[in-house]
Backbone:
């Protein structure tokens, strides 16, 4: 089931660009419900959304409108992830909001957004990932971990999943970092030992 996304961006071209990146997801994980320059329009659609995606300017407008509490998630959107996209993280961002760098590649942006929604559904706050690292593996990372355990190389995994080889390399790097491991053999042994736990 695709994630419903509402985008509010002060710059129409930026908002349409974000929408195009999400719509181009090879796994069809996202459905853009609306792209607007009007924060009120975006907020009015929150009941249909899994994510309200704002650029930093729209976020600052939202903060000004909520007084001393800039966290949109505390203004009454339970179950909806508020994500902010920009070059620099707003100083007013609170723990309920996710910041995504505008310098990310399209693949990295989509993976980060998908992972954040997954973590939120598991009760993990975007900035307070306080569960053991082994519990922070996304479904996509688990899929890749299973293929590594089968002995497949990056090109074979990429071909099987229909993604670029560099995307698989990024996932492997993230897995090694998350699990504090040195190589693929350690990942495979870890996955074999923990697969049914």
Residues:
């Amino acid at each position: 089931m695709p994630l419903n996304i509402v985008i509010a961006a002060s710059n129409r071209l930026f908002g349409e660009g974000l929408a195009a990146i999400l719509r181009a997801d090879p796994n069809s994980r996202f459905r853009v419900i609306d792209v607007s320059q009007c924060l009120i329009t975006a907020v009015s659609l929150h009941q249909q959304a899994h994510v309200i995606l704002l650029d930093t300017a729209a976020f600052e407008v939202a903060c000004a409108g909520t007084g001393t509490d800039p966290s949109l998630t505390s203004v009454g959107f339970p179950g909806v992830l508020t994500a902010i996209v920009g070059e620099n993280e707003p100083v007013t961002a609170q723990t309920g909001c996710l910041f995504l760098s505008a310098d990310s590649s399209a693949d990295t942006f989509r993976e980060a957004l998908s992972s954040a929604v997954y973590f939120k559904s598991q009760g993990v706050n975007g900035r307070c990932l306080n569960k053991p690292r082994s519990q922070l593996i996304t479904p996509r990372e688990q899929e890749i971990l299973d293929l590594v355990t089968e002995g497949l190389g990056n090109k074979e995994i990429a071909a099987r999943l229909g993604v670029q080889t560099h995307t698989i390399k990024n996932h492997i790097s993230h897995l090694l970092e998350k699990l504090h491991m040195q190589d693929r053999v350690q990942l495979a042994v870890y996955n074999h030992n923990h697969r049914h736990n």
Summary: The chain has eight helices and five strands.
